[in-house]
Design brief:
Two copies of one chain form a homodimer.
Chain A (H helix, E strand, L loop, with lengths): L1 H5 L1 H13 L5 E4 L15 E2 L5 E2 L2 E7 L7 E8 L4 E2 L2 E2 L4 E14 L5 E4 L3 E4 L5 E5 L5 E8 L7 E2 L5 H5 L3
Antiparallel strand pairs in A: 2-4, 3-6, 4-5, 5-12, 7-13, 8-9, 8-10, 8-11, 8-12
Chain lengths: 166, 166
């Protein structure tokens, strides 16, 4: 509004750009029809080795911004792959969309994840997630209220931790 | 913490309950393995006729709470079904997981939605979404920052609006 009041010509330019973009919607990703039976989202980029063990693919669906403050991404863990231990200052929601995997909080037994499961990791709770040794895991990950921070990355999940029956 | 300081016996009870529940994770939904090719989430309940035209199924994945302030749900629109016009004070993220449908903002042409599309409806922008006349649409809907409100429901989308080429 500051621009609208003080710089009318620039404001007209911004308005024209908005109209050219088709209004205020932000279509973050639109690629036309995808095969009915294939993955919902593309694999994206390799997750950084500093934060993951094994092969992990990460696709950003909604980047961090000051309007939504809600980072959303798709993550594919190939069999045996997992995140490092980490925590989210404002918590994290996981929606399991395919495969099976593990979710574990510090000091707690591993939980087995299946397609359709929903996990809420509470703010600040140290945890990891990943595939089972023989099956891939795909989940959507949502971090709300990112004004508090997105993630604090910690040490890798050791093979002993990963293969433990607990 | 107030309880811990003043009511130790009750606090022990709460602690025991938390331990029995397996710690601080909130597994909102876990139902064991689901068929690899079927829908990710169950259909849930019929969406209220006051807010929708046609047959719509809504499953709550994450209810509103003061920790996440991020309502998440799965919505299935059967062919021809659509939401009323509505707006979200803090905006909405749609993740299209199956089928095809429409998304339209007031005064803008309809956009066709496909599996894998991501839409960000900006705060306060009047819009509707739904299936195409011949194909169902399934999407995850995320409303962040619900302290500002979740949704303001408006008038139905008329057949004229729905079947318009614009």
């Amino acid at each position: 509004m500051h621009i609208l009041l003080t710089r009318p010509l620039q404001a007209l330019g911004v308005l024209a750009l908005l109209l050219a973009l088709g209004g205020s919607t932000q279509v973050v990703r639109s690629r036309g029809p995808r095969p009915a039976q294939g993955p919902i989202f593309p694999k994206g980029q390799r997750g950084p080795a500093a934060n993951f063990t094994g092969t992990v693919w990460v696709t950003s669906l909604v980047a961090d911004d000051s309007t939504f403050q809600c980072v959303t991404g798709n993550v594919v863990f190939e069999p045996g792959a997992r995140s490092n231990w980490h925590r989210h200052p404002s918590g994290q929601i996981l929606l399991v969309t395919d495969g099976s995997g593990y979710y574990q909080e510090k000091g707690q037994p591993k939980r087995i994840l299946h397609k359709g499961d929903v996990i809420k990791a509470l703010p600040g709770v140290e945890h990891w997630h990943g595939a089972t040794p023989k099956q891939a895991l795909t989940h959507v990950a949502i971090v709300p209220n990112t004004e508090k921070g997105v993630a604090v990355w910690l040490q890798p999940v050791t093979d002993q931790e990963y293969y433990s029956l607990k």
